[in-house]
């Protein structure tokens, strides 16, 4: 069974850092773009970052550009999201999703053959 499992969320003070992991099982991520989405209470889901299968094929939403860094380790079948300089407005549930052979330089509509269950990130001031 294909699965994505997020981990690394938690409670952090504003200005702090967290590193999220998205571990895949039941399939290999080599041919998949992996994106991170987040959803805050009362807000629409936001696609914040994506990493494609080609080197350098990466997307960041303006809201996280310069603060978050996405990376992938195909050998570990895992994608990471390093989140620095966290702000209160980064609070939300973070999900990762995999999309077969999707480009990494943007998040296409309907992205996500597989989705994780989410991990909570809470930033306090």
Structure overview:
With 125 residues, the protein is mainly β. 0% of the residues lie in helices and 50% in strands. It contains no helices and eleven strands. The protein has strands spanning 3-7, 10-13, 18-25, 32-39, 46-51, 58-60, 68-73, 78-83, 92-100, 114-115, 119-124. Strands 2, 4, 5, 6, 9, 10 and 11 form a seven-stranded mixed β-sheet that branches. A four-stranded antiparallel β-sheet has the order 1-3-8-7, with no helix packed on it. It is globular. The termini are far apart. The mean pLDDT is 97.
Key terms:
4-stranded antiparallel β-sheet, about 120 residues, mainly beta, 11 strands, single chain, globular
**How far do the termini sit from each other?**
40 Å
Mean pLDDT: 97
Strand runs, count: 11
The structure class reads mainly beta
- Sheet-strand content, in percent, reads over 45%
**Shape category:** globular
- Helix percentage range: under 10%
- Separate helix tally: 0
Which ranges are low-confidence, i.e. pLDDT below 50, for 5 or more consecutive residues?
none
User: H/E series, N to C?
Assistant: EEEEEEEEEEE
Radius of gyration: 13 Å
Largest sheet data: 7 strands, mixed
